[in-house]
Model the fold of this input.
Amino acid sequence: MRAEAVRLQVANQQTDLQRGMAQDFDRLFTDEYARVVAIAYRVLADRAEAEDVAQEVFLDFHSRHSKSVAFAPAWLHRAAGNKALNRVRSRKRREAREAAQGQEAQPEPETIVEEREAQRQLRDALGRLPAKSAAILALRYSGLKYVEIADALSVGVDQVGTLLRRAETLLRKELNS
Amino acid sequence: MKHLPEGTLRRILDEPDEVLSEDREHLESCNVCQLVSRDVKADMDILTEMFGPEIDALDTEAAWSRLNAEAETETEPAPEKPEAGPQPAGARALLAIGRVFVGVGTFVLLFVAYQLLGTNLVTNNEQKALAAELQTQWMSNVVEDTPDLGDGVGLIKIPKIGVDRVVVEGVGVSDLKKGPGHYPGTAMPGQIGNTVISGHRTTYGAPFNRLDELEIGDEILVYDRTGPFKYVVTENKVVKPSAVEVLDPSSDARLTLTTCHPKFSAKERLIIVAQLEGTPTGTADQPQGPGLEILPEA
Done:
């Protein structure tokens, strides 16, 4: 009888805790969703794909880390950049494979083809940069503050300017080559 | 003092308030850092334009529902994946039309961006090359006496109207394509005398496009090898092209800016006069000024 009550109480506490966590996660999602998409969008230049990446990022976070919301934004930002960059790289590989097999890429409306070309050059160049350089560009150009970038990449905030500048020089070189 | 590292110059562009005030002050007063800062900014501007606009309004609530739906299908034993729900043909057509609109819209935007970027590139490249030369010159110990026509002589910055350009020697058509030009024979920046700089109102980067917005008391900064000079606007007027007296030597240390007026016309000239704040570096050795009969078009 007593044991039953205790078990009930424990169970209640647990659901309270879970509810609390769910609320935290809800808030985290509301606060960070737009920025996570923005970061992925910088890399992919494709709205739907960026939103897909954001879904993956939040699902990942939820299944791994739902207890610690303190470092969550930094984790989400870094994951958004990395996942998006991985997609760009595998997209590149897939295209190369399809080209090797003599397959035509999906036929696209003519207007979009040219736009894609300029955008593709930038994204390809981004994909060829060292991972950290590419990530810092995605983070900065989606509007993150230097402090936030430092958190996401686990570097000192004083280093962000230097790393960013180096990444920009690299990307410009990559685009000119 | 040592020059600022590029990382600091980069951050000043994004978050000036987060940088040490002594670093900001150093940049204000350092001709070399000004040049490097321009390079850093040029790269940033180009990449900003290439990355394009940030993504616009997102439907966070819809995304939240989607996430919850996905989370559930992950935890539940996966049911037979339902084929994408039956979508009414009307909705599909609308979606397709919407996509085409978005596609065309994005294309138009990109095309405009390309136009702006592409046409400015010519002047931009010239400016970049000039700045690089200046940087080498200023950091070396060799002092050249008078600049050749078409060479860079310094920087002009007018914070209020966003001017930040390398000034070239000469006001010929080919000089002004590169940037605002210093009238040969007029005083050099910082000297007692009349320093005259002319620039395009439209085309070729249009450095002096918004010169008409300057009011008495506004700041103009000029950097050359000998240092930074701060001028304060004292006069803003429109004259006939024959009013060459604005080029006359003066007994004060003044800066005169000239450009065409009104925009897209050569009927008149817009003149800005500013006075040096602080001590002049010396006296110009030009007794009678450039001796022109008409103010060149710009």
